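User: I'm new to structure prediction. If I give you an amino acid sequence, what do you actually give back? Let's try with this one:
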Amino acid sequence: MASAYPDGLDSLSTSHQDNVDEIIHASTVNDLADAVNKIEAELGTDPKASAADVKTRIANTETVANAAIPSSYLDTDGTLAADSDTKIATQKAVKTYVDANAGGAGDTLHTVASSTASLAINFATADVWDITLSANCTFTLSGLTSGDPDYLTLILRQDGTGSRTVTWPTITWIGSGIAPTLQTAAGSVDSVVLFSFDGGTTVFGVAQTSASGLRSGTSFPGSPSDGDLFYRTDRRIMYEYVASITSWLSLDRKYVTFGAAAILPDGATTTGRVGALPVIEDVYVETWVSFSAGNATNNGSNFWTFTLTDPTNSAIGSFSTNGDTVGVSTRHVVSIGLSYAASSGAFFIVSSSKTGAPSNYRYAGVLIVRSIG
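Assistant: Good question. You get back a string of structure tokens that encode the predicted 3D arrangement of the chain. For your 373 residues, that looks like this:
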């Protein structure tokens, strides 16, 4: 203990005692020693002053300990927008912030007892929407917040009629890559989870429906959407629905040649048939690809022209060798994009015609086709 304290206080050892007389219990002496140590720590090593001054100093200590935090240090903003290291958020502000960002509408169920032809789904309204589809319905999304993750669960119920469909906004579907196919039975229930991390610029979707996934069977389903996949078990072929031509097309593509490469001599007649290809099944012709090579560089006055005609004898594509380089096999690609039904005796035909006196030419070509379901 500091020597500046009164002799009567300094003479008392502040170390704990274990062998004092039983009249003064050891615990009492030890408590007193602890109290003296605390007083010295509080008043410093030089406590000499009037009794009134010491009393004031002790009172001031109690005032600081019991004082309220000045309002200038408190932050009552429920958004905590200051993001400060010098402010203390009040209990009410913290509760407001947590309610808004860690749950809030998450505890709210929004029910749509009967949908109409369109439905605006607001993420801010609730994060669980229970919707009974009573008509084919187009969904729109709103209420997504930039900078915060947004989540929404849709419970989709078929009404007593069933076969109600949903037209979705732009959504990146995880897994299948295509919009889910809902169950069609009356009273059936599906669920879809939507979420976004950028305020709705990209919305992801995960479907939880027994109708989702790869469908299969011996006949195509009704009311397909663009990009739907279907496996025909009777043909062992995977098909994709292409809405622009309202057809199911095989995923695999066939490269069908026109036979052996044809050699066109310089002295050939003006026109002639180069190759023919029969139509033995319903096909969608995507592209006509040809390779040609000449003994001399063709120009605007001397070149070959190749034309593709379809089974109706209509010209559906052509190209010329004008500008082909001597001795170089040149690839010519012509987009077709037409569908044809199988027909007895029907052919795709490639014919040639020449302008001026082009050199000898070698030609080979293929059609890239997909089977029509």
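You can read the tokens as a compact description of the fold. Here is one thing that stands out. Confidence is low (pLDDT under 50) at residues 5-14.
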